[in-house]
Specification:
This protein is an alpha/beta fold. The chain has 11 helices and 12 strands. A hairpin with a 2-residue loop joins strand 6 and strand 7. Helix 1 packs across helix 9 and helix 7 runs parallel beside helix 8. The structure holds adenosine-5'-triphosphate and magnesium ion. Adenosine-5'-triphosphate binds next to loops. It comes from Suicoccus acidiformans.
Length: 335
């Protein structure tokens, strides 16, 4: 049986993880959940954000699904989320922005996929204090990391019958770093004559996405721009409760929702488990369990087609557990 590392995480993490595992189990797929604990709660108990047991489990299983983890603000703490992506070189962050059912979406149905470079840029955390009043943060962009994510985006576009890839930078200002990323975008595009390269500056992208998002199909960008744009894009299809993500490297993958720990609603049985459940669907596809993934997506589409089934983030009244029951019933009906 395939063993999968499960990291419930902080905030709403444990609630949505419970919901996600229940839904995956009724789909009939046989997985063994290997629970390990990391994040702020573990830090308070053990003094470590990422205990050794997490690395052991990840290195043994090579595939994981995780809830969000709190990064304490201030000195000395690196994000545990970022640390995992870096440690295992999970360089592709893939975030599909697809509207399920009738979720509140200003442009109606939408189908975009964001590829975000996941290991460098300002996220590399190379910062230094020059004086009490001056801090520097170094932006790192390399050919190797840029080329591999851009190639993933183009290959994905081709495999899925898409016709365009937008390469998003601020190359007019950051001529060396973003200039390199854009140059590589052009080089890779030359290998894909059937796919149109859209060169878009990130500020313009922010505007285009809220005015006319349907002009885009696949978007590839650096780490920080991808972070910001993916929250914006989540807003186009009903919010952060709905958008899944995958962090994929050469021989390991960690699946997680785009959203954070949602401290404002943690422990209140209000969180929307859709984003983490869709992340599990991406994991099932990765594991070759496409049938189960399809079944769960269909069930979510059906449940989210009725406003009566919405959780609070979508303007509804259903709790996490009641929403989960609806999804489980739909999976059983569709099976
Ligand atoms: P973090 O620092 O961990 O990212 P945050 O304060 O940025 O935490 P997010 O988790 O990013 O919080 O959430 C931003 C907003 O979206 C919050 O108001 C939160 O309640 C809401 N939200 C995020 N995820 C969900 C979800 N799964 N269900 C319902 N609401 C959510
Ligand atoms: Mg956040």
């Amino acid at each position: 049986m395939t063993r999968v590392t499960v990291i419930p995480g902080d905030g709403i993490g444990p609630e949505i993880t419970q919901a996600m595992t229940e839904i995956v189990e009724v789909s009939g797929v046989k997985l063994e959940w290997d629970y390990v604990y990391a994040g702020l709660k573990v830090y308070e108990e053990t003094g470590e954000l990422l205990p050794e047991s997490v690395f052991e489990s990840l290195e043994a299983n090579k595939v994981a699904i995780k809830g969000p983890m709190t990064t304490p603000i201030g000195k000395g703490f690196r994000s545990a989320n970022v640390a995992l992506r870096k440690r295992y070189d999970l360089y592709s962050n893939i975030r599909p922005i697809y509207r399920y059912g009738k979720t509140p979406a200003i442009f109606g149905d939408l189908d975009l996929v964001l590829f975000r470079e996941n290991t460098e840029d300002l996220y590399a955390g190379v910062e230094e204090q020059i004086s009490e009043h001056e801090m520097h943060s170094i932006k790192i962009i390399t050919r190797e990391s840029s080329e591999r994510i851009i190639r993933k985006a183009f290959a994905y576009a081709q495999q899925t019958g898409r016709r365009k890839v937008a390469v998003v930078t601020k190359a007019n200002i950051m001529k060396l770093t973003d200039g390199l990323f854009l140059d590589i975008g052009r080089e890779v595009a030359a290998d894909y004559p059937d796919i149109q390269l859209q060169e878009v500056l990130v500020d313009n992208m922010a505007m285009q996405l809220v005015m006319n998002p349907k002009q885009f199909e696949v978007i590839v960008t650096e780490n920080l721009y991808g972070d910001i744009l993916s929250d914006l894009m989540a807003g186009l299809i009903g919010g952060l409760g709905l958008v899944p993500g995958a962090n994929i490297g050469e021989d390991m993958a960690i699946f997680e929702a785009v959203h954070g720990t949602a401290p404002d609603i943690a422990g209140m049985n209000k969180a929307n488990p859709t984003a983490l459940t869709l992340s599990a669907c991406m994991m099932l596809d990765y594991l070759g369990e496409a049938e189960a993934a399809k079944l769960i997506r269909q069930a979510l589409d059906e449940v989210l087609s009725d406003e009566e089934h919405f959780t609070a983030d979508l303007g509804g009244t259903l709790s996490t557990t009641d929403f989960t029951k609806k999804v489980i019933a739909a999976v059983e009906r569709l099976k």
